[in-house]
């Protein structure tokens, strides 16, 4: 119970993943990319031919997700799905299954299991509110929608996907709206979260800010 947890929550493409990886690296902690669990659930449902709104069947898939992380890669069964998980359509599917309470429930325990010595950096939407409410530090990361669309664009292009900014901006706003308005764990900062707007911050500056807060809190 004394294993420290640092949560980084925020909207799509706010840079949570990069920030979480960098901070975890600095602290020598484990990292939980909780979005990957929802993405893997959406992918598993697609592969199994299960409709994304079939709550009991999607939740059953989530409860026994054959997911493994190894050397920075993510495997579903034996298949390396690291890149497939990043596809925009999988992200949209993730946001659909993430709205189902039974799916969130099914993934709860799995997320807790990432808390291991010497500590965990957890990134997602509800890490600070629902999964690790006792976390030592909760950061809520934001950035303008235009900035986030541009970052997502660069990320997709660099992974060999095709993309266009206007379409991405639209998807991103639709996903944010759905994440904020759902009744199960809507996207919102925890009451005790520190807000960090990184629209005009370099990644190094963001890492430094979070590490400074961490030093204060510990
Ligand atoms: O962060 P990422 O874009 O990978 O998350 C994909 C989707 O999974 C989000 O749009 C959100 O709907 C959902 N999600 C969630 N709770 C989390 C992490 C992700 O609902 N903790």
UniProtKB/TrEMBL annotation:
Subcellular location: Cytoplasm
Domain Cytidylate kinase: 7-212
Domain of life of the organism encoding this protein: Bacteria
Amino acids binding ATP: 10-18
Record note on quaternary structure: Monomer.
Function: Catalyzes the transfer of the enolpyruvyl moiety of phosphoenolpyruvate (PEP) to the 5-hydroxyl of shikimate-3-phosphate (S3P) to produce enolpyruvyl shikimate-3-phosphate and inorganic phosphate.
Similarity-based family: Belongs to the cytidylate kinase family. Type 1 subfamily. Belongs to the EPSP synthase family.
Designated name of the protein: Multifunctional fusion protein
């Amino acid at each position: 119970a004394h294993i420290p947890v640092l949560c980084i929550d925020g909207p799509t493409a706010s840079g949570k993943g990069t920030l979480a990886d960098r901070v975890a690296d600095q602290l020598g902690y484990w990292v939980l990319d909780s979005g990957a669990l929802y993405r893997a659930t959406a992918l598993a449902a697609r592969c199994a031919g299960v409709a994304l709104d079939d709550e009991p069947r999607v939740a059953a898939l989530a409860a026994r997700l054959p997911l493994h992380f190894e050397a920075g890669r993510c495997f579903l069964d034996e298949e390396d799905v690291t890149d497939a998980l990043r596809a925009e359509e999988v992200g949209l599917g993730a946001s659909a299954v993430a709205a189902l309470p039974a799916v969130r429930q099914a993934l709860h325990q799995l997320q807790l299991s990432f808390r291991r010595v010497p500590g965990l950096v957890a990134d997602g939407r509800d890490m600070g509110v629902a999964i690790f409410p006792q976390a030592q530090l909760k950061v809520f990361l934001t950035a303008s929608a235009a900035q986030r669309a541009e970052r997502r664009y660069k990320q997709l292009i660099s992974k060999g996907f095709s993309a266009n900014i206007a379409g991405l901006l639209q998807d991103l706003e639709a996903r944010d709206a759905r994440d904020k308005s759902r009744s199960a764990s809507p996207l919102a900062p925890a009451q005790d979260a520190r807000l960090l707007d990184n629209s005009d911050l370099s990644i190094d500056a963001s890492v430094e800010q979070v590490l400074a807060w961490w030093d204060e809190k510990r």
